[in-house]
Amino acid sequence: MAQSEFSSKPSSERARKQSLLVARVFHTLGFRIFVIGLAFLVLPLLIHFGHAFYENQSLYKKELFIEMCEIAKGRTRLITQFFNGKFDELGILDAIVAEVVENGTQQPGGVVSAAFREAVFQNYVSYIFVETLNVQGDLNCILGAPAQLSSCVNLFRDQIAEVMKSGKGVFVAEDPISHLKHLYISRAVMSTQGTHAIGAVTIAVKPQSWFDTLSRYFTPEMENNFFIVDSSGATLLSNDPNFSLRDTTLFSVDLQEDIILAFHKNKGTKEGVEFLKFFSSEDSKVGIKVPIPNTGLFFVASRPYSSFYRLFSAESLGRAVRFLIFYALIGGFFAVWLTHRMSKPLRDLCNTMEKVGRGDIAARYPYDKMGFEINVLGLGFNEMIKTLLETMEAAKNERIARELLGRELKIGQEIQRSLLPREMPEFPELDIAAAFFSASEVGGDFYDIFVRGKDNNKQLVIAIADAAGKGVSACLYSLGVRSMLRSYGVSSGSLAQMIIATNNLFCLDAADTGAFVTAWVGILDPKSKKLQFSCNGHLPALLLHSNGVVEELTTPGIALGAMPIDNVHSLETQLSVGDELYLFTDGLIEAENSQGEVFSKKHLIELLKTKKIKGAKGSIAEILKQMDLFCKGCPQRDDITILAICIPSIKQV
Length: 653
Hints:
Strand order of the largest sheet: 7-6-11-10-9-8
Mean pLDDT: 77
Radius of gyration: 60 Å
């Protein structure tokens, strides 16, 4: 196993060196600049190829469309001449038919005159008939061949009515005898005065004869196909018998105006010409659809869509090769030089960073005229090193300051702990307990309880105080007030003398610092249960009587050290068995939860009224428990101090 691990180390080292080599070659600014330069070499070539291809194809398409337009123009002219010839042939019958209709020389159903017979062209015509308007507005067939047409009424009424309005026309319809589609060529019969149309003479061209006659106009040219269609898209004649325009999907396409003008001389008008792109089952096609005048028919010329594309010409390919050689020589040399020159500032920056990383904090990036954005990074790096050195020096000074502050806080906490009594005085008539919890910062809270007098004249001096501010100074002020209270509490006779002496001496010590200490001070006689007290700017003490009533013990007065005084307000109250006295600082009733709500004195009073636990220690524990439940673990900003003195009954004792 050890051998396997040992043998794998060289391979992993080789892999690491290979990855570093790849990173040095391909993950450098020089390589990226080279790629960009190469892109600038290839991109113009691709653009040139694309532009040449586009122009080549556009020109080729334009030529093919112009060719199709010219073919359609010529075919439409020939077809129009064919129909005009038929109109002229029908014009021979005009005078004969007008005489028959106006003079009544030939009655409906009679034998057609010899001239009318000669007008029937056996090679083209299947039927010939004449219709006129009667008084009721119906079309009567007065002459016809074959004769059964003479009995028809309103034969092709809509189409004949349109012919009588326009003078001539061509339409496709199913004849009433053979039920085959025929091409009907019709011309209006004018009155002998030539003022209005009195009827129409119409010939029906035989389908086969029609095809044989017109098919010579549809000889294949290159790849073009030709159709004659009606307005519905049905193919009437085509040189491709397998193709039907009705079976395709037509899409109009936008073409250049000069292609349209190649077919029409009237500038800006298409005159019904449609350029089409349609698809069949075999191949997509592009075509032009042109109306045949006075017929309602359309001529369509089409060719395969694939014929519009071809490869580059030799000339285009030659231009591309010359273009590539030019860029390979000039652009390649420029790309190599630019890669080496523009990567120099980055190499300088990397070298500077390596020196700093090795501990040479005096190394700096040198400004380069070709550095551009790298100069911004380099100068920023220089500024960062300068700021880092300044920050390191500031951090060093801050660390020293924190160490000094830590020592100060430690001294303050030791002073604060020294203020608190280590043991509670023991009286069989009293149950005494206290609790103190310091906040994150050192404060000036303290409580004190000591005995003065001897033998049967012993009295219990009780004090709880809170110095203004935080830190060691607040602790020192609290220490001074505690020492003064203890000193004057033993030597002075009354409570008022003790407080006056303490306040006036503290004012001398505090001078103009603005320091002050709130205090609640009392003297309790354990035998008589009489309590004399004075409140000097502090919170009232709460006296819970045995009947559940809570009384606030307070007096008017200002905080110690605020100003010299010569008088103190004090009161006296009588305690009874079962009473409980609670002294506390503002940290207890101002404890906050996460919503910013405070525990409050009102909440504390309600808790004292409803608690079931008796005894000083148990009561304090219950109060602190309820406070923790209210605050839900939120850290507190002030010290929490509470002192409880209970007068238990005989059973409790």
